[in-house]
Write a structure and sequence with these properties.
The chain has 106 residues and is α+β, with helices and mostly antiparallel strands. The protein contains three helices and four strands; from the N terminus they run αβααβββ. Strands 1-2-3-4 form a four-stranded mixed β-sheet, with helices on one face. Strand 3 and strand 4 form a beta hairpin.
Length: 106
Amino acid sequence: MDHAEEGVIAEFEDAVKKAGLKPEEIKGILNIHQSNPNGVCNKCTKGLFDQVPSEERGIFKQLTDHYPELKIKVTSERDPSVPYPRDTLSFDVKNGVTENVVKIKK
């Protein structure tokens, strides 16, 4: 695993399996707050904001596709010394539909 998000999502999926639940039974909100003030990297969000082949989907696109009834809310730690983060700071996604996307550009 290269990114903390992958570890968090792996733990979530392990808990779902241990509980004996099917993906379509998972409903509610999964909140993920990550500490990188530059935001969630474009590797992890790949496919959320653009069309990509299935095998190129980032971890969040894979998660929303696998658990369509789960709302995933992602936020990032802010740091005033990083006024223009390079990646996505926050977003919500459910069943592949993104909302409340925050990206700060110059």
